[in-house]
Each structure stands twice: as structure tokens, then as C-alpha cells.
Amino acid sequence: MFALRHFNSSASSLHPRWGNGSAGMVEAMVTDMEHQQQENVTALQNQTSGAMIVVLPMSLGIISNTVALFILVNAYSLQRRRSKATFLLFATSLVITDFFGHVIPGALVLRLYLSGGASPEDSSDSMCQFLGGSMVFFGLCPLFMGCAMAAERCLGVTKPLLHSSLVTKTRTKVCLSVIWLVALSVALLPCFQLGSYTYQEPKTWCFINVLNDTMEVDVAFVVLFSGLGLTSLAVALVCNTISGLTLVLARIRRQPGSHHSARSHDIEMVVQLVGITVTSCICWSPLLLFCYAMGTSSTVFP
């Protein structure tokens, strides 16, 4: 009995006795661990939401362009009229270019989102150069193509005889090649120290340097990019307006009972062009105007 009581008293003396200071340290450690866990959960949620923001428009763009490509290829193979075939060749090239414009930059931006973005000390690297060049190339190509399509339709509506003698499939392919070459040349200018690409906040995409430590070549580069884009949009708007007014006047002057199947095709193509132009204006005008404003303001206030 005495031995058992002695053992209990000895065992109780072996238990650690926490003081007020030790208890405070343990509580602080637990609070810090909970705070770190909460930060990890928040970071994971932000990363997931950022990835969804990239994946959703990229997936919609890929699906819509794939469907449009199948429709255009089928229509191109069945088309007999040369003017319509030329328009479909432009439209098919536009859809293919826009398809890759969703896949390539979207995949790179998604990779940056999943990796948590570029480190703060990285202002530009090979991946940023490629992503920035892709943004410029796939941004200018649809604008140039929309402008060329509008000009081609304007010529076909207002001067059909001149259009039939000038516009051919071969010349259309040459025009498309020139468009891709010009857009690629502009995108590669930073490789020759004529402008630069840099990571943009939140360090998950790259574009022309217009905000931090801009130099004269950066200003010239951004003004060139925005100027080409805005000019293409303006020319497309003017050509579509002329084409639309010409078709409306022709419909008003048409004799009762006369049939104009060619005009119906022209109306269909002009309506499609108006849709393309409006979409381009909505998607690109804010960025182009912002770049142009930043470039001109940097020129006035260096």
C-alpha cells in the first residue's frame, strides 16, 4: 500500500509541468500553423479560380473555331462562285489563325497560373518573349484579315467587274502570306532590341512593356502595334459601311420581279463581315486604345 502510494507520487513527478510561458508558446505555434494552413487553402483557391478563368474562354474558343472550321471547309468544297470561294478562303484562314491564337497563348498562361506565376525578380525570359510575341502575332493577324476581307467585299460590291479581274485564289493566298509575314515581323521586333516584352500583373502573362521603365523603343513599338490594329479596324468599318450602303441602295432600286441571287450572296457575306468587325472592335479596341494612349502619353511626358 505504501509502495503503491510512493509509485504514484513518483510517476506524477515525471509528468511535464507547463508554465504560463510554455503554454503561450504552444498556443502561438498552433495559431501560426492554422494561419499557414488558411493561407495555403486561399492560395489553392486563387490558383484554381485563375486556371478556370484561362481554361473556360480557351475551351470555348477552341470548340467554336473547330465547329466553324468544319462548316467553312464543307462550304468551300461545295462552292462554285469564285467570289464566294475567295471569301471562304479568307474566313477559313481567319478561323485557323484564331484557333491557334487560343491554344498557344492560352496553354502558356495556364502553365504560369498553375506554377503560381513568375517570380518577382523575373522581368522577362524566353517563355515571356514567346508568349508576348504570340500575343502580338495572334492579335494582329485577325485584325489584318478582317480588314482584307472587308476591302475585298467592298471591291466586289462596288466594282464587280474590277473585282473579277483582280481577285483570284492565287492572289488571295499571296495576300494571306503577306499578312502572316507582316504580323510575324512586328512580333519579332523585340528580338532586334526594337521594343521589349515583360511580365504583366499578376505575373501570369506577357505583353509589350508599357508601364514600367519604358524606353523610346518601347513607346515606338506599342504605338506601332496599336496604330496598325486601330487602322485595320477603321478601314474595315469604312469598307463595311460602304458595302452595306451600296447593297441597300441596290435593293431599293431593284425592279419588282427581278432576281438577284448574287446580291443575296453579297448581303450574306457583308453581314458576316459586320459580325466579325464588331467582335474585333469589342475584343481589341480597349487594349489598342489603352496601348496607344500610354504610348502617346509617354512621348509627350517622357
TrEMBL record:
Protein source organism: Xenotaenia resolanae
Bilayer-crossing regions: 51-73, 85-110, 130-151, 172-199, 219-249, 270-295
Main location as per UniProt: membrane
SUPFAM superfamilies for the chain: Family A G protein-coupled receptor-like (SSF81321)
Source species, domain of life: Eukaryota
Bilayer topology: Multi-pass membrane protein
Keywords: Cell membrane, G-protein coupled receptor, Glycoprotein, Membrane, Receptor, Transducer, Transmembrane, Transmembrane helix
Compartmental location: Cell membrane
Protein known as: Thromboxane A2 receptor
G-protein coupled receptors family 1 profile domain: residues covered: 64-302
